[in-house]
Amino acid sequence: SCAQKVILWTQVIFQVFFGAFQFSSLCIFPATHGMVVGGFVISEVAHFLAIAWVVGFATPEGKVITSFTLAGAGVLVAGAVVTSIDSLTGTIVGLYGFWFAECVGFSTILLVTPAIIHLGDTSSEPLFQRLEALL
User: Which residues are CB-contacts of 131 (< 8 A; sequence separation ≥ 6)?
Assistant: First the structure.
């Protein structure tokens, strides 16, 4: 199905970009590092939104996936924007803003699965069985 292909390929693309990120340190490959970080962030956001689409954006699980994903991505973008402002160079915000945004943004995205598990089953059929049936 289309949904299955989207979920598969967004995860494959994420894995490729994330592997390239692990190899391309900022010190050695500064231009490549930025591109692969952008690639893995965009592909993982697309992956989570595709899962939310499959389970239904209006379901409790879909709402958790969508809100955590968009919040995490939003914090990352905000951190990048704030730390690119020249007047903040050398200040505490300029030095630690993006680091903080990375920590909060990626932690938020990683919290999707535990949040869904904590939410519990709101239907008679567990989420993973519903996903399997849809795909």
Answer: 51, 54, 55
